[in-house]
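Minimal example, chain plus adenosine-5'-diphosphate.
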Amino acid sequence: MTTLLGCIADDFTGATDLAGLLARSGAEVSLRIGVPTTPPKDTAAFEVIALKSRTAPVDAAIFECRAALSWLQDSGAKRFFWKYCSTFDSTSEGNIGPVSEALMADIGTSQTIYCPAFPENGRSIFMGNLFVGQQPLAESPMKDHPLTPMRDSNLVRLLEPQVTQNVGLIDRLTVAQGPDAIVAALKKLADRGVAHVVVDAVADEDLKHIASACRTMPLLTGGSALAMPLPALYEQAGILQAQTEDADRQSIAKEAIILSGSCSEMTREQVAQYCQKAPGFRLDPLELETKGPSAALAWLASQPVDAAPIIYATAEPEDVRAAQDKLGTARAGEIVEAALSQIAIAARDRGVRRFVVAGGETSGAVTKALGVDRLHIGAEIAPGVPWTFSESAGHAIALTLKSGNFGAEDFFGQALSVLDAS
Ligand code: ADP
């Protein structure tokens, strides 16, 4: 099918989040990990390309994004979405603004909007200022982010040093008046030569007005929530037919495994809860360093194939610090990721077809090990965490990739039952 909207996301779990929100509509959504190396084939109405460009050098980010754009243009897309984090993660060099300008030049458009608001997750924009819950961005924990510390909350001021053309604002007073008022404001700004327009949004209703006003713009930029109303708008415009889930995807064998490399607070709860009802094996990074994952692999081989076990490196902060002090932070992470990757392959080879993976970096490592470069998006388990469908070594598999604090305490059990019910 011709692609209606080509999306470029600056990181992997951000891409999954966007794909999941688009798929809420029932439309077919496909996610590619990295810019595909082969020409478009068998494309979906919504194609999302996941890059790792958020903190890459500006030139590298622009290069990757332009390559992604070119592939999406080849798949027939005429409208594009540049997705970045709802906390506008960037520095005064970029990469949000410079990538937007490069995409605008390649697409041949003279104006775009910036709306990272995600009200469902507490991200709102008022008078150009971004809030995280009740805190202005620059007073939120993002002020201390190791790579992109956000020390200003005003998106107009944040964007200005990143771009060469003028930046303007459409504030909530205009947005609340609805799509026609937004269209008129955009036109007024365009007449004044404003290429980059920050748009306020504090509620889903605002995002609906903005998406409706901007649905035919060649390039939209923002968080995943801005894209959510687009499938319904395309249906109303008659360019997208409502679709039904591919029946094949529901018949994926039931054998499952949970792999967790996330040490976030919510994941720790989820692991503890799941361990009460299924067999579990804890990975110790220090033992992995000397002996590799042989004990875990032997344990896995001794489990009934339908036991849906969990293998996890998830640990309390003091244990993580102890491992990091002995091995170094990067090395500790690599060892755990490598072990979980090997375990994923072993599980697949013994017939496991459903993989629940916790951790953003961990998900990247496991999908790479399984040779997964494309995912079809299915039912949502928790906001921003869908089941996805792919192939590994010729087998149809289902994967869910959960970053740190997503999902509720019973997420792992819930994930398995969502797939059974769908
Ligand atoms: P999250 O989404 O919660 O941030 P990630 O998978 O992105 O999870 O990051 C967690 C990192 O911590 C991974 O690199 C993982 O390999 C590493 N890790 C997991 N368990 C441990 C542990 N017990 N000690 C040290 N590092 C660990």
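DSSP finds 16 helices and 18 strands in the chain. The chain has two domains: 5-236, 256-421.
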